[in-house]
Predict the structure of Deoxyguanosinetriphosphate triphosphohydrolase-like protein.
Amino acid sequence: MAERSGQRQPAAVQQTLFGPEGRPPYAGRPADTPGYGAWDRARWLPEPPKSSYRSDFERDRARVLHSSALRRLGAKTQVVSPGDDDFTRTRLTHSLEVAQVGRELGRSLGCDPDVVDTACLSHDLGHPPFGHNGEKALDAIAETMGGFEGNAQTLRLLARLETKKTFDDGSSAGLNLTRASLDAACKYPWLREDAPLKADGTRSKKFGVYADDAEVFDWFRHGVSAHRQSMEAQVMDLADDISYSVHDVEDGIVSGHFQLQWLTGTEHRARAIETTRTWYLPDTDPAEIEAALTRLESTRVWVTDADGSRAARAALKDMTSQLIGRFCTAAFDATREVYGNDPLTRHNANVVVPPQTAIEIATMKGIAAAYVMSSEDRRPLYERQRELLTGLVEFLAHTEGEYLEPMYASDWKHAADDAGRMRAVIDQVASLTDYAALEWHTTLVQGKRYPGGAV
């Protein structure tokens, strides 16, 4: 009897058809980017060999992309709270845009694009509800037990809190990323007590690893000079700066906070320059910031007035695209001028950003800060957000882990001391979205029915 069309072939025939590796003849092989070896591809918890369809770094990217921490960024504050406007960015859309910018810039410099992509997708995973405002609240609460820092929380998520692999003793290896990807995602590669000194002699408040996560940090940083970012981390850091410098301005304009034409007025211009200096460039002469703003205004894509029309939206999009290209091209050209055309990976080079470009990027950030983040009408909102998180942490810390989700309740139960138990509470609260934090506070702390909506 003739076989029916479409009937599955026996396994042996299928295997022969696809070749000795079970690979269709048209399937590609993962490309090994020059400059990376077995050391860079190693995982904290060794894993058995996988199919050869994907590289180790492609798997890293997929693990982050499918993580619950990344999904939650869709409901976490970027500049304004999610739900305030259906155009403005969330932490998730921002992370996707950073990944797009970083991937292309990194690839042009010779970095493995998936390592950079993984770092960019990961860079904001540790942000708590309400963005930097929430970060300040949790840091104040955790001051006596190691503090809270969004970047240190990112490493904690990647290497401990997210679920993918566990050691034989049952402890978590987190997503178990490769050494190169963990190093790339570590924006501030030092503990709090090892933070570099600022010009005034005080230590930076930025750090990338908590003391109880030092073991994995020491593993992937073995042999690397203190404080040195990997090449891929530098690309991620620059892509983040570039992305939010232009996108926060775009969001601020679309959400009605300001127009760029305001900067032609003496008072508004002084406000933007002073905010830029205070927030981002304390050691820079205001005249240099003024010059950077003038250069940006002189570009043909600068949108002085956006009226909400389709044409205006298109012009804003073109402005953001052109400015991203301007900043990336300047960094690419400057870096290649110093290091030539060889692949620049891991710890064999540094990203070079021309001083004028760095000031232009900071000026864009300063414009958004002047009209959105430091806006007086948002101060009561920020205070309510900090009070909300503080009240929620205090409630959860005094209810013996009863209301924690199972994973965090287990961490509470097995903690060795009060600091460990408080860290479990902080981990839980940091994981919440803006909406979830509001709901938990309303139902648990206030004992009310949550009506929905945003803060």
